[in-house]
């Protein structure tokens, strides 16, 4: 019964003069081509706009020509993918949607992709001018994406790709499995600049890292409303601005990948102190310990921010303690205890532990423990009550050990 009704409706629709593909439905405004080409297919139509950029183009301080020569052959330790990257296998992706929260009912009406082709960076934009154009647009997008091995996005793991994936499932199309080959630049940006910048939005990174300042660009939060207005008026002006915004996002991702790749390739020469700290953390995570130590040391040497310098000293000390033994970190702990305004207790605690349990130097361990308690008693350190309780227990334990040694007639020289 239902199938018969659907067949009748399709027959009525196909015989209606207003359904002819030769022009818009009577009373409907012309959708236009928005600077692209109207692609007709079995599932319907959509707009495809292709823009090709010379690799001599610069985006801020970054020349796109470096994308072609970018060496990502040893990159798994910082990309956290299961394969190294050839830039010819990369596709950049960015979407513009009917809502910023995602979820059921949110449509990606514009999908922009970018990739290397010869000596050009090609940007192709797939636009659904109305909801009925989503299916043919998605079919074309998935077909093109299947030509690439690595997906590069910005916040795409949390937003762009899950949204597209849900729309593909809804449209009964098979999604592409990018789980182990999806590089989201936002996560890397946070590791490099999250401590330095107030926000790691793409616009912030463009301005503060790439030295690129957009002019006449529309804010991303306005995009859904612009699309809704376009559906009602079919006026192209603001929609063309949305397409320009989408293109800029793809160019920014390409430039950001180039810049990040250069930082990780030669951090000592390329990174500032903040970036060195982020790279060192990734090197430590990947057990490239000698390189991590070098980056921490250069960070400490070059840092103008006292908090960053302290964090680098802490990380280096803990790295040395964990992988080379506490005796390797002893000199750094002493340096921190003496230099950092005399208000740090963690190097005192670490030295007390080492001297008590490894060197059996109870006198010096007790000295450091008392110093830590004095700092806590001044109320300047901001540590928890549990730490103070632990220090008091250590102090009492050291006093007992010292008395026991004295009764036994043994003495450990203070180092």
Short description:
The chain is 53% helix and 13% strand. The protein is α+β, with helices and mostly antiparallel strands and 415 residues long. The N and C termini lie far apart (94 Å).
Defining traits:
alpha+beta, Nucleotidyltransferase, domain 5, Methane Monooxygenase Hydroxylase, Chain G, domain 1, seven-stranded mixed sheet, two-stranded antiparallel sheet, 17 helices
Model description:
- By secondary structure, this protein is α+β, with helices and mostly antiparallel strands.
- The protein folds into 3 domains: 29-265, Ribonuclease H-like superfamily/Ribonuclease H (Nucleotidyltransferase, domain 5, 2-Layer Sandwich); 267-324, Methane Monooxygenase Hydroxylase, Chain G, domain 1; 341-415, no CATH class.
- It has 17 helices and 9 strands.
- The strands form 2 sheets. The protein has a 7-stranded mixed β-sheet, sandwiched between helices. The protein has a two-stranded antiparallel ribbon with strand order 3-4.
- A hairpin with a 2-residue loop joins strand 6 and strand 7.
- Helix 12 packs antiparallel against helix 13, helix 13 runs antiparallel to helix 14 (326-339) and helix 14 runs antiparallel to helix 15 (346-357).
- The longest helix is centred in the middle third of the chain and has 29 residues, at 237-265.
- The radius of gyration is 30 Å and the shape is elongated.
- The N and C termini lie far apart (94 Å).
């Amino acid at each position: 019964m239902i199938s018969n009704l659907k067949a009748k409706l399709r027959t009525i629709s196909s015989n209606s003069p207003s359904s002819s593909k030769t022009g818009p439905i009577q009373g409907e405004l012309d959708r236009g081509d928005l600077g692209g080409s109207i692609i007709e297919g079995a599932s319907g139509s959509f707009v495809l706009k292709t823009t090709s950029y010379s690799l001599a183009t610069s985006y801020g301080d970054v020349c796109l020509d470096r994308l072609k020569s970018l060496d990502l052959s040893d990159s798994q330790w910082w990309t956290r993918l299961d394969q190294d990257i050839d830039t010819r296998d990369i596709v950049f992706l960015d979407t513009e949607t009917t809502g910023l929260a995602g979820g059921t009912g949110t449509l990606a009406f514009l999908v922009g992709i970018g990739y290397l082709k010869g000596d050009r960076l090609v940007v192709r934009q797939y636009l659904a001018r109305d909801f009925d154009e989503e299916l043919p647009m998605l079919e074309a997008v998935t077909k093109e994406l299947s030509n690439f091995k690595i997906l590069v996005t910005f916040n795409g793991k949390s937003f762009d790709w899950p949204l597209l994936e849900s729309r593909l499932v809804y449209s009964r199309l098979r999604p592409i499995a990018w789980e182990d080959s999806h590089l989201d630049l936002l996560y890397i940006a946070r590791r490099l600049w999250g401590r330095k910048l107030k926000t790691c939005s793409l616009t912030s990174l463009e301005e503060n890292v790439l030295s690129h300042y957009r002019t006449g660009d529309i804010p991303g939060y306005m995009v859904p409303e612009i699309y809704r207005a376009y559906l009602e008026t079919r006026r192209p002006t603001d929609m063309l601005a949305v397409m320009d915004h989408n293109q800029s996002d793809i160019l920014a991702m390409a430039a950001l990948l180039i810049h990040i790749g250069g930082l990780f390739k030669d951090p000592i020469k390329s990174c500032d102190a903040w970036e060195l700290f982020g790279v060192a953390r990734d090197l430590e995570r990947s057990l490239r310990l000698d390189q991590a130590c070098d980056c921490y040391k250069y960070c400490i040497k070059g840092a103008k921010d006292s908090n960053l310098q302290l964090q680098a000293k802490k990380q280096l000390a803990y790295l040395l303690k964990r992988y080379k033994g506490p005796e390797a970190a002893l000199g750094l702990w002493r340096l921190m205890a003496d230099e950092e305004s005399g208000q740090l207790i963690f190097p005192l605690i670490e030295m007390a532990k080492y001297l008590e349990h490894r060197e059996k130097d109870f006198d010096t361990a007790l000295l450091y423990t008392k110093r830590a308690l004095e700092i806590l008693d001044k109320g300047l350190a901001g540590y928890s009550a549990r730490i103070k309780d632990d220090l008091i227990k250590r102090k009492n334990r050291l006093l007992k050990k010292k008395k026991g040694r004295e009764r036994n007639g043994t003495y450990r020289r203070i180092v």
